[in-house]
Write a structure and sequence with these properties.
192 residues, two-stranded parallel sheet, two-stranded antiparallel ribbon
Length: 192
């Protein structure tokens, strides 16, 4: 979802007569946090592919670590216009995740649509490892997973964070005050 938001933000930035090169000249603080967060997320993808044991504590550790490091990166860069919006989306997801004992709320209808009837039965019995039924979950409206098609699921926090990414990217691209190194010039009066 965030890759699509990044691409859509670039398209909107181009429509607003922005330049993609301006993204390279923004000084993000604490860049290593987002890189480490991306590595944690890559670990989550590997675990989801079945290349590692689901019963391991690593999945929850990688997920929480990824969210916390991303949140710290967003907090460190709140000076960038609209950066608070992805932080709000991430905060909603974290709040729902922590309120439900490290599980995401999932409605039985969405489970049936995405994973099939067997997943609905497991969800109702509380046997799914990473999900809890939205009917019994705390703050389920914040993190309730919404199916889009058969493979794509998002929560309200994800939607808000993606809209924030779109706004941040297009705003940076359209900002005419971000100068490239080649356009920095000296005043003629400085050498007199």
């Amino acid at each position: 979802m965030f890759l699509e938001a990044l691409i859509f933000g670039i398209i909107v930035g181009y429509i607003r007569r922005g330049k993609i090169s301006r993204l390279a000249y923004v000084n993000f603080t604490f860049k290593p946090l987002i890189y480490i967060s991306a590595l944690f997320y890559l670990g989550i993808i590997i675990i989801n592919l079945g290349l590692y044991d689901y019963e391991s504590f690593l999945y929850s550790t990688f997920l929480i670590g990824s969210m916390i490091l991303t949140g710290l990166f967003l907090i460190a860069n709140l000076g960038i216009k609209y950066m608070f919006i992805p932080l709000i989306g991430l905060g909603l997801n974290l709040l729902s995740f922590f309120a439900n004992k490290f599980k995401f709320p999932l409605s039985p209808q969405a489970a049936g649509l995405i994973y099939g009837q067997e997943a609905v039965d497991l969800l109702n019995k509380g046997k799914l490892l990473f999900f809890t039924s939205s009917e019994t979950a705390s703050l389920s409206y914040l993190g309730n997973i919404i199916p889009i098609g058969n493979w794509f699921v998002v929560s309200i926090g994800d939607i808000i964070a993606a809209l924030g990414v779109i706004l941040v990217v297009q705003c940076i691209m359209a900002d005419k005050f971000i100068q490239t190194r080649g356009k920095i010039t000296f005043s003629k009066d400085i050498f007199r």
